[in-house]
Amino acid sequence: MPAFSRFLRYFMAVGRLGSIRKAADELNVSASAIDRQILNVEAELGLPLFERLPTGLRLTAAGEMMMASGAQWQQGMAGLRGRIEDLRGLKRGHVDIAVIDALATGQVPMMIAAIQQRYPGITIGVKVLGNDAVRRAVIGGEVDCGILFEPQSYRELSVRAFTEVVLGFVTPPGHPISRRGEARFSVCADEPMIIPAEPLAVTQQISVLEGATGITLNRKGTADNIRMITSLVLLGAGVGVLTSLDVQTEVQQGTLAFTRISDSLLRPMTLALCTASARTPSYAAAMVIGEFENGFAALGHAASRT
Fold it and tell me: Domain span at residue 208?
């Protein structure tokens, strides 16, 4: 096992970097030791794992198969270590989470900090991704759980908790629209607008509203990043259209105002905490997921107004 583990570590680094020298620098071992391990396995298999090119090393078909199997083996070993710790009754382990961009500030970092205080033996890795990328990361086993919009159509996902998030206008406090508790989409017809672009999840809802109302927005700017949109709104560049979740922190701090769009055709978006249906969470992951389940309602629209 140790010999195979050493070879696999060397092989995966070379396959990823395309260079024995770069792998040696990264792993802090001699290039000759890495080369010897790879040559020994190639001799045992009777097939080359790499094509030796003037520009570096490229995986052969056999190398691609070894790379895929190696990734599965490493993932399996990580799960095995977690299960062994479970048997010992230790609250230790590592948990990976994927979240959408809107959750990079505010309530989710607060939840993570609270979990780390409660379970100091558990480490947490967070990936901030687009909505569809979160879905793929959960299903593919890259993370233990994910938080994303509209998971119902994905059979590979199990919804552990959910809450509703609504679409609305984002303005500086004192803007005429901000004086309304809610407003129809038509109020923005003559306003300069800062509009979300793909892959932000609200883009589709805005297209539906434009089509249904016949209103063509005065697009002064577009952005695929929530922080950029809120920054432009703060600077007076235009009115934004985002979800209540996107600006929850700014609204609570009083730096931005959120006015819900009240058109009847617009339904709330479902924000969900999901795991892969085909996988059973480790002991550490189950504890972290349970903590998120308990606090998930705080991410909803009602919570953002309190």
Answer: 167-261
